[in-house]
Amino acid sequence: MAFNRMPTQEDRVQQQAGEDTARRLIKARTGTTSSRFAQRQDARQRIAEQSGLSNRQQAAVAAERRLAESRAIIATNAEAEAAEQEAAEAAHRQEQEERRATASDQTMIDRAAQIADLCARHGVPEKASKFILDGIAPAEVERLIGRASAITALVEQARKIDARIDAGMARQLIANGATIKEARAAVINEMADLSDTIMIRGQVPPDATGPSAEQKNVGRWRQAFAKAGGAISRPTVAQQQGGTTHEQG
């Protein structure tokens, strides 16, 4: 008659050693490593089993171990989600920067096209590149071109009346940044000086009748400028000496 032999402490130790060996082999094959906390839990469970703890106590140790593993998995997932969110935000920022750069490039292209069109319409296409490189706004370009065109037309009209006026006067006035009003005053002074020179060289006899040569000359350029859109009054001698001019209109 056979009797069931109760396992001794030595039997339990040998059984636990066999289980540990099998566990190590499985881990070596799968290439996984447990965390330090999990290793401590394994050690605690082995100690509990070897020390003859009750089944309830062993179950509590195993439950604590599973809880620790679950927390570790949750923490790992949270870190992965945070890293993924950070990568998405970085990609979004880069996309926004690229859009801003594209918008800036398009703005520069539009501005250059407007400036080139303005210069072409006013007959000065060669000035477009300088305006673009200087970063001048299209509205300012239109104002500068309009001022230059008006001053050029003013000097050309004056030269039709008196060809002795310097042809480069318009270019000099534009380069000095003169306004249309200042350019008109400068042209009037130049014409008045030329008329005074004519009067001094050829004095009109006191008993002469009819308008003098100066009066005829002044009348001619006054009519021409009136047609051009400006009512001009000739500066007095005192105004010329003081360096000031008055113009009406």
Automatic annotation (TrEMBL):
Annotated region Disordered: the residues are 1-56, 86-106, 230-249
Ranges of compositional bias, category Polar residues: 236-249
Q: Where is the composition biased (Basic and acidic residues)?
A: 89-102
Q: What is this protein called?
A: Uncharacterized protein
Which species? viral metagenome
Q: What is the lineage of its organism?
A: unclassified sequences, metagenomes, organismal metagenomes
